[in-house]
Design a protein that fits this description.
Length: about 325
């Protein structure tokens, strides 16, 4: 399904972080709908390097790209020599997804260099080519602010969220200095769907609970999970937002969610209903102090300026996702 009237055929498109969850989905959307598009994926790919919390630094995985027919470049956005390789192209569109995306990554220098410093370099590439720049911001910019969360009222509580807020500020200044450019940031809320499996422990609770249930294990939730709410947004709605952002009514930063909060308990119950199980639920104390209890995207401006309308309720999204959850059950995460 095409989301706007842009013809991406014969356009040159850069996707940073294109071997990751959202980036690879954008790549396949473009490939499937615009077979003559020239798509270049730039990703540092997965290695054995870990953050101090034990999670991987990079989640790019070759298996996310099986079937992709465009060009793949292994490079790091922190490495200016790697970025020089991109000088051979003239990009019409840039979808910038590469980042240290772990909200519990506390190496501030690494997060800032990767997410903030490199953004300056990519904006300069976009300026030189007069590219449309669509970049990933995050709902982490809001921290624990009460729902609904809206652009202009931010309070990040981790280095990742702060780095994304800095990116939004950089983009805003850059757009003012270059009024002929299209620059749009998208604050994704809780994204789930096909392609996230190789994010391992940072993949959504939807696939993790789904695999617990398939293992005939009661899904494990925090105590009072019927009162912990998130705006879960299905990957196809996120793709829609990225494509619509290429022709915004105005530059800016926009929330991407459903505008509806659903509880952790809802997720477990929907999965059990879809998988036809009745395993009850196992509860354990929430180990995190000051845990965010409710995220809900205010998508008023996203609808108004991007013509974005989410198509997937939590029930519909999980139903759509179920075959992949089953197919990947027992798969080696490596």
């Amino acid at each position: 399904m095409k989301h706007n009237d842009i013809d991406f055929n014969n356009k040159t498109i850069l996707i940073t972080g294109g071997a990751g969850f959202i980036g690879s989905n954008i790549a396949f959307y473009l490939q499937d709908n615009y077979p003559n598009a020239n798509i270049i994926i730039f990703d540092c790919f997965r290695n054995n390097k870990l953050l101090l919390n034990g999670n991987l630094i990079s989640y790019g995985h070759y298996k996310n790209l099986i079937g992709f027919k465009g060009q793949v470049v292994c490079g790091n956005i922190n490495n200016k020599d790697d970025l020089l390789f991109l000088d051979k192209y003239k990009f019409d569109y840039i979808f910038h997804q590469a980042a240290i995306s772990d909200t519990r990554a506390y190496n501030q220098e690494m997060v800032m260099r990767t997410n903030v410093n490199s953004f300056h370099d990519l904006l300069e590439i976009a300026k030189k080519n007069q590219s449309t720049m669509i970049y990933a911001s995050s709902a982490a910019t809001y921290g624990r602010l009460p729902a609904p969360q809206m652009v202009g009222n931010e309070s990040p509580e981790n280095p990742y969220g702060y780095s994304k807020l800095l990116m939004d500020q950089i983009a805003s200044r850059f757009a003012l200095e270059n009024p002929n450019m299209t620059i749009v940031g998208l604050r994704f809320f809780n994204v789930y769907g096909p392609g996230e499996f190789y994010k391992a422990k940072t993949s959504s609770m939807i696939i993790q609970l789904g695999h617990q249930i398939l293992d005939n294990t009661p899904p494990a939730l925090f105590e009072n999970s019927n009162q912990i709410l998130r705006d879960f947004v299905y990957i196809e709605d996120v793709i829609q937002a990225n494509i619509l952002a290429c022709t915004p009514k105005r530059n800016g930063t926009y929330n991407v969610g459903t505008g509806v909060s659903r509880s952790f308990q809802d997720v477990a119950d929907i999965l059990q209903a879809e998988l036809d199980t009745n395993l009850k639920t196992k509860y354990f104390p929430n180990p995190y102090d000051g845990y965010q209890l409710n995220t809900q995207a205010d998508i008023t401006l996203t609808k108004e300026n991007l013509n974005y309308v989410p198509n997937f309720s939590l029930e519909k999204g999980i139903r759509n996702y179920l075959s992949e959850i089953k197919n990947l059950y027992g798969e080696d995460i490596l």
